Structure formats: structure tokens, C-alpha cells
């Protein structure tokens, strides 16, 4: 009886061992397949499109100050600790000096800008979620959507020889909405460019053939430094251009001075946009003179009925007020089909 029991135990133990080995092999194959299909494309995209080419990215890990008491003696000095952890020269060149000549940067190749063209950067700021873990809820911005947005802008910037600066900001201030980091990011980077085009992460380029110089800048008078469009509500800062001028830095400082003014109209949902509207509406420090309004279709088309509705050939599509932004972008791609693909970066 004992020997039979011993044999039965061996039989019962030997059978699962083979099954377990088969299960582990299947599990290993499944994990590998998931990595190849879902993870590797993002690794490849980030390494290729954000690191190996002329684009650069920045990760900031600090708190926004209560108030920025900065004296702007000239354009170049306007940015405290400007991008200390980022290379601001094209193609990874080392910055060797900064001059006061309009805030230009001299790079290792000895050129200021490489040409007489305006030096332009595209900037998008993403506030890292708590714990640096991106949400998976479809109504939130997911990591895949952010990377898709970054690649869209990088390809456009690379095509036209602009810099693309995606910024991940580890926001820590519990009392200040993260969107205010956009103002500080511009203050840090604007000294190194003639123009910055700042867009939210839910705005995509939809016409790669349009250059910023020809489509936007050539229509801007020389005394204007802030280019933005109106929607059905007021100014919308999901897509705007700002010029490197002393007045622009005074404007940024005036905007940030309102960062804790909770009495601003729609402060709790419009954030820095409320402050920008306030500065212009009340002509603080006479700064309304730098404002240049352009048609919404030029830089900030929507997919909702609040001004200009996006059409094929429009420069930008923006998804403000839409909960499922990734789904809205996917819907546009599906509806636009091959015709839209001809214009995407």
C-alpha cells in the first residue's frame, strides 16, 4: 500500500511538471509578443525621434516659485538658469557662449543661428502625474497619446529645420495648477530663440507643407510679440507664438504675477490663459500693444463648435474641452483617411 501511494505521488507530481513547463514557454512567448508589438515601438520612436536627431528634450524637477522677481536688463539675462540641463544648440552641439545680440546662442560650430532665418522652437510642456505614472483611463492623456503628439511635432520641426523641445515637468506645487509651468518653460527657453511656438499636448500639426515663416510670421508686424487666436470664448493659448523681445519677457512676468490670483475669470479651468487674458484686457503695463490676433483657422482649428471647425489643409487641429482626446485624434485620422495622410508630418 505504501509503494502504491509512493508511485501515485510520483505520477501526480510528474504530470504537472511537464504542463508547467509548457505554460511557462507560452507565457514567455506572450510577454515577448506584447513587448515587440506594444512596448518596442515607443522605445524606438523616443530614441530615434527625440534623441538621435536635432531635437532635444528636457526634464525639470522643481517647484514653481511664489513670485519671480527678475530684473530684465536685456533679453539674454531674462531667463534664470535657462536650460542648465539641456543642450540648446542644433544637432547636439555644445553651447560655448551667449551674447546680448537679440539673445542668440553661439554654438560649437561658431554660428549663431546657421543662417539669417529666424531661430524657431516648438515647445510642448507635459506635467508628469503624481508618482510619474501616466494614467490609463481613456478620458485622460495617456502615454501613447503624448508620444504620438511629440512625434507629430518632431517630424514637422525636423522637416522645416526648427527645434522641437518637449518638456516633462515633475510638478510639485500643491496649490498651483500645473499648466503654469508653461510660462516658466518659455521664460527659460525664449532667450535662445527668435520665436517660440507653444502648443498644448492635444494640438497636432495637420499640414506639414506650411512653414511658420510663410504661414504666420510674415504677417506679424515688427512691433508685435504675441500671436494668438480667439475662439468662441476668448483668447485660447493652446497654440500661440511669442517673439524674443524685452516686452515679451515683461509680458511673461506680468502673466506669472497673476498665478495665484484666484479671482481671475475661469482661473480654475483656464489657468495661465486666464492671466494672459487679464493682462491684455486690462492693458497691464501697456502690454496690449504687443498682441497680434490672427484668424483661428491659421493656428488653432477645433473639432468642436467653438469658432473655426477644422478642415483639410488647416495647419493645426486642437482638442480643447474634449474628454477623450486620443479618441478624438483617432476619429480625425479615420475620417480624414488618405487625403489627410498626404498632409501629416
Automatic annotation (TrEMBL):
GO CC annotations on file: Golgi membrane
GO biological process: protein N-linked glycosylation
InterPro entries tied to this protein: Glyco_trans_34 (IPR008630), Nucleotide-diphossugar_trans (IPR029044)
Molecular functions (GO terms): glycosyltransferase activity
Keywords from the UniProt entry: Glycosyltransferase, Membrane, Transferase, Transmembrane, Transmembrane helix
Annotated TM spans: 26-45
Pfam family, one: Glyco_transf_34
Family: Belongs to the glycosyltransferase 34 family.
Name this polypeptide is given: Glycosyltransferase family 34 protein
Amino acid at each position: 500500500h505504501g509503494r502504491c501511494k509512493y508511485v501515485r505521488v510520483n505520477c501526480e507530481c510528474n504530470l504537472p511538471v511537464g504542463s508547467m513547463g509548457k505554460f511557462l514557454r507560452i507565457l514567455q512567448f506572450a510577454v515577448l509578443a506584447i513587448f515587440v508589438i506594444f512596448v518596442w515601438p515607443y522605445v524606438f520612436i523616443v530614441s530615434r525621434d527625440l534623441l538621435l536627431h536635432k531635437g532635444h528634450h528636457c526634464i525639470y524637477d522643481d517647484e514653481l516659485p511664489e513670485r519671480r522677481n527678475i530684473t530684465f536688463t536685456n533679453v539674454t539675462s531674462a531667463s534664470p538658469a535657462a536650460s542648465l540641463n539641456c543642450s540648446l544648440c542644433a544637432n547636439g552641439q555644445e553651447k560655448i557662449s551667449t551674447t546680448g545680440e537679440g539673445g542668440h546662442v553661439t554654438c560649437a560650430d561658431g554660428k549663431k543661428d546657421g543662417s539669417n532665418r529666424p531661430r524657431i522652437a516648438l515647445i510642448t510642456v507635459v506635467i508628469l502625474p503624481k508618482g510619474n505614472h501616466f494614467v490609463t483611463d481613456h478620458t485622460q492623456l495617456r502615454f501613447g497619446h503624448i508620444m504620438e503628439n511629440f512625434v507629430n511635432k518632431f517630424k514637422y520641426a525636423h522637416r522645416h529645420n526648427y527645434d522641437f523641445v518637449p518638456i516633462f515637468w515633475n510638478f510639485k506645487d500643491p496649490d498651483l495648477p500645473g499648466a503654469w509651468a508653461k510660462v516658466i518653460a518659455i521664460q527659460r527657453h525664449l532667450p535662445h530663440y527668435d520665436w517660440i511656438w507653444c502648443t498644448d499636448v492635444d494640438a497636432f500639426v495637420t499640414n506639414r507643407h506650411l512653414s511658420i515663416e510663410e504661414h504666420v510670421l510674415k504677417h506679424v508686424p515688427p512691433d508685435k510679440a504675441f500671436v494668438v487666436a480667439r475662439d468662441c470664448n476668448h483668447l485660447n493659448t493652446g497654440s500661440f507664438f511669442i517673439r524674443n523681445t524685452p516686452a515679451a519677457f515683461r509680458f511673461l512676468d506680468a502673466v506669472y504675477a497673476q498665478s495665484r490670483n484666484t479671482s481671475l475669470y475661469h482661473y480654475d479651468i483656464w489657468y495661465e490663459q486666464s492671466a494672459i487674458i487679464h493682462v491684455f484686457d486690462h492693458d497691464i503695463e501697456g502690454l496690449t500693444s504687443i498682441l497680434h490676433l490672427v484668424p483661428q483657422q491659421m493656428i488653432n482649428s477645433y473639432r468642436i463648435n467653438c469658432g473655426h471647425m477644422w478642415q483639410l489643409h488647416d495647419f493645426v487641429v486642437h482638442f480643447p474641452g474634449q474628454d477623450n482626446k486620443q479618441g478624438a485624434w483617432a476619429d480625425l485620422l479615420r475620417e480624414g483617411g488618405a487625403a489627410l495622410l498626404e498632409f501629416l508630418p
